[in-house]
Amino acid sequence: MIVSNEIEIGRGKRARRVYTFDEIGVVPTRRTRDPELVSTAWSIDAFQFEIPVLGAPMDSVMSPATAIELGRLGGLGVLNLEGLWTRHENPEPLLEEIARIDDETEAVHRMREMYSAPIKPELIRDRLAEIRDAGVTVAGALSPHRTAEFADTVVKSGVDMFVIRGNTVSAEHVSVAGREPLNLKEFIYELDVPVIVGGVATYQSALHLMRTGAAGVLVGFGGGASSTTRATLGVRAPMASAIADVAGARTDYLDESGGRYVHVIADGGLGTSGDLVKAIACGADAVMLGGALARATDAPGRGRHWGQEAHHEDLPRGKRISVEPIAPFAEIINGPAHGADGHSNLIGALRRSMATTGYSDVKEFQRVGVVYAER
């Protein structure tokens, strides 16, 4: 018997039933283990990491210093190569100003001015060199429309991993006459470094991106709490279903390609340690964190959090939000937590959840049982 997962919106439209993190939970098994016996390590291409965490390329989260700090904690910091750090020699006073502005209209106006400064290739080189000199893995991100312009600079600067990140990235983009779209397949083929690309939210779009040769695919639209894509564009990607769909594409592409594994990275809607746990349970290999890391007392946002969309020149699809700084990066990642809200000791929570359900590593934990509880 086949049960339909569709519901009728009206006589002329049907919709697929999908699920958010809040609607699901993981299920313990008959076996448990000590958290000390659990491994949270993961690898992508030739790079090994102790924790399955990437820092989102957002100026409120990742600076060269915090990218280095996250690298030392076992994760991967991804620097925004279109942000203030590559447009201004000293962005610290600008970050301080953004944090101080109370009026949101004024904030958008001022941020547009700050981000209108040209991107300087020499600053891309210098910022990435600073991270590389610290001895951690170097990763930088560009949006699709900036990738062709600055990719050569990024690769020559010694980046280890290249991230192409946008609200929605496809392998088949249609451009206006006279504007050449980025050919992802050709671009990735010509690069000497692994590429992570996204975001996507469906099985088919993920499968298309995997066929371009990407090493990893970002699931979701990023931004999380700072994103207003749902309100401005009416676009929504309930993350539990989106990750499960893309994980299904990964499995099918593994068979189609004769064994090529493409990593699935959840990007967006990850506010607590429980969300991180559920993302991996749904099939993610790792998570990209923005707002969760913006709560760090040493985050460059200084209690504010925003993405590229917050200062878009025509149609902002995000906003600058306030977050309460609660602890340094190290405590948010590895604890100890001083509250039960899931905002700190993220990896400790992942370890305990894996131990409670009887799994010893991240790859095994993707097989954990999941339940749906209607709210």
What would a concise description of this structure say?
34% of the residues lie in helices and 17% in strands. The chain has 14 helices and 16 strands.
Please give the share of residues in helix: 25-40%
CATH fold descriptor: TIM Barrel
Amount of beta strand: 15-25%
CATH top level assignment: Alpha Beta
Element string (H = helix, E = strand): EEEEEEHEHHHEHEHEHEHHEHEHEEHHHE
Question: How many distinct beta strands?
Answer: 16
Number of helices: 14
Give the terminus-to-terminus CA distance. Answer: 26 Å
For the largest beta-sheet, the strand count, sense and barrel status come to: 8 strands, parallel, barrel
Structure description:
The protein is α/β, with parallel strands linked by helices and 375 residues long. It has one domain: TIM Barrel (Alpha-Beta Barrel). It is built from 14 helices and 16 strands. The protein has helices at residues 64-72, 92-100, 104-115, 121-133, 144-156, 184-190, 203-210, 229-233, 239-256, 273-281, 291-294, 329-334, 346-357, 362-365, and strands at 6-10, 13-16, 24-27, 42-44, 47-49, 53-55, 76-80, 139-142, 161-165, 195-200, 216-219, 263-267, 286-289, 304-305, 321-322, 369-372. Helix 7 (203-210) links the parallel strand 10 (195-200) and strand 11 (216-219). The chain is globular and about 55 Å long. Mean pLDDT is 90; it is low at 172-177.
